[in-house]
Design brief:
Helix content is 22%, strand content 32%. The chain is α+β, with helices and mostly antiparallel strands. The longest helix has 20 residues, at 51-70.
Length: 206
């Protein structure tokens, strides 16, 4: 029974990072507002002289995901600019401090287990397709896909838990890139829409 209780608590910590916000009326209304359509055609080539910036942004996103799943909130929050805005299933967070506070229990790395535990349930996020374009000397824009994988099932096997896409705006401050604005769409939860102009999609309704 104790083992089951711990399992339930771990699942709550993983799935409900901000209980007070998630599921509240109107908290994901932001997802229904269409974003600007993707520019077309879009060059697949990295602009000349921007290779270092491109790699830095990719590394920023990898750092973000590893820190998220490890429950390393300091590293995670520091991927954002001090005045950043994040849109997610919990609503809209303004500023690095709010992002840090309201994701305080997110990630399997923060789930508490009994002292005799030898393994843990895991939830891992990874990037899929990604498209980065530079909008200025110190700004960039990015849209891409993400996937979430878990072993929280009866035989602890690998399973796809959820998926979606994101749209980010970046800013370079004192030589380092940060997330200035991040919109996270999840096709399993309520922070989703019928179609996404930022992905090049059109209204599919006849």
């Amino acid at each position: 029974m104790l083992k089951r209780i711990f399992g339930l608590l771990a699942a709550i910590a993983i799935a409900a990072p901000s209980v007070a916000q998630i599921g509240a009326p109107g908290v994901t209304d932001w997802a229904q507002k269409p974003q600007p359509a993707v520019p077309s055609p879009f060059s697949a080539a990295v602009p000349k002289g921007r290779a270092d910036d491109y790699v830095a942004i990719v590394n920023l996103m990898n750092t973000y995901l590893v820190a998220l799943d490890a429950g390393d909130l300091d590293t995670y929050a520091n991927c954002f600019a001090p005045d950043a805005t994040m849109y997610w299933v919990g609503g809209i967070e303004h500023g690095r401090a709010a992002i840090h506070k309201n994701l305080a229990s997110f990630g399997t790395g923060r789930a508490k287990l009994p002292k005799n535990a030898t393994e843990r349930p895991r939830f891992i996020h990874t990037l899929g397709s990604q498209r980065i374009d530079f909008t200025g000397p110190d700004t960039a824009h990015d849209v891409g896909m993400w996937l979430g994988f878990s072993n929280r099932n009866k035989d602890k096997g690998f399973e796809t838990a959820e998926f979606g896409h994101y749209e980010d705006k970046y800013v370079k401050i004192d030589g380092r890139w940060y997330l200035q604005e991040r919109r996270i769409f999840n096709e399993r939860l309520s922070n989703k829409a019928l179609y996404y102009p930022e992905l090049g999609e059109h209204d599919p309704r006849q």
